[in-house]
Specification:
This protein is mainly α. The chain starts with a helix and ends in a 34-residue tail after the last helix. Helix 1 packs across helix 2 and helix 2 packs antiparallel against helix 3. The protein is built from three helices and no strands. The chain has one domain.
C-alpha cells in the first residue's frame, strides 16, 4: 500500500465516527494482545534473571541485577495500558464531538428564537408602575434612611 493510499484511507476513517471507533477498537485489541505477550515475557524474564547466580554472589545480587530490566518492562506495560485507555477515550470524545456538531444547528436555532422572543418582549410598552405612598405610613419606623445617632428610643442591632 502506498503512502498516498494509506493517507487517503486514514482520511476516510477520520471523517466517519463509526469507522473511527472500529479502527481504534482494532488497534486496541491488537495492543491488548501485545500486552498479554509482554506480561508473559516479563514474568519469564524475571524468573530467568533472578535464577542466574554468579559465583561469589550473595543471595540478593541476582535480584538486584534483574531490577532495571524488570522496571523497564513494567514501565512499558504501564505505557501500553495508558495507550489503550487513551484510544478508548479518543473514541468517546470523537463520538461526543460528532453528536455536538449534529445538534449545533438546532441549538443555534433555539437560541435565535429565544433572542427574538426576548427582543419582542422588550418592544412592548412598559406598564406604568404606581409610586403611591401608603396612607398612614409616614410614622413608620422603617421610613427613611437613618443613622445610629438618630435611633431615639429604638435600640440598635
Amino acid at each position: 500500500m502506498t503512502n498516498e493510499a494509506r493517507n487517503s484511507a486514514m482520511r476516510g476513517i477520520a471523517q466517519d465516527p463509526d469507522a473511527f471507533a472500529a479502527y481504534l477498537a482494532d488497534l486496541q485489541r491488537w495492543l491488548l494482545t501485545i500486552g498479554k505477550d509482554l506480561e508473559t515475557l516479563q514474568h519469564e524474564t524475571r524468573v530467568d534473571l533472578r535464577s542466574k547466580h554468579v559465583q561469589g554472589d550473595r543471595w540478593y545480587h541476582a535480584r538486584l541485577r534483574a531490577v532495571p530490566v524488570e522496571r523497564t518492562l513494567k514501565d512499558v506495560l504501564a505505557h501500553l495500558e495508558g495507550l489503550t485507555a487513551g484510544l478508548e477515550k479518543a473514541t468517546f470524545k470523537r463520538r461526543a464531538h460528532h453528536e455536538e456538531v449534529n445538534s449545533l444547528p438546532g441549538k443555534r436555532k433555539e437560541k435565535a428564537l429565544a433572542k427574538a422572543k426576548k427582543k419582542n418582549r422588550q418592544a412592548l410598552p412598559p406598564t406604568p408602575e404606581s409610586t403611591k405612598v401608603v396612607p398612614g405610613a409616614p410614622d413608620s419606623v422603617y421610613g427613611g434612611p437613618t443613622s445610629i445617632y438618630d435611633l431615639g428610643d429604638r435600640r440598635s442591632a
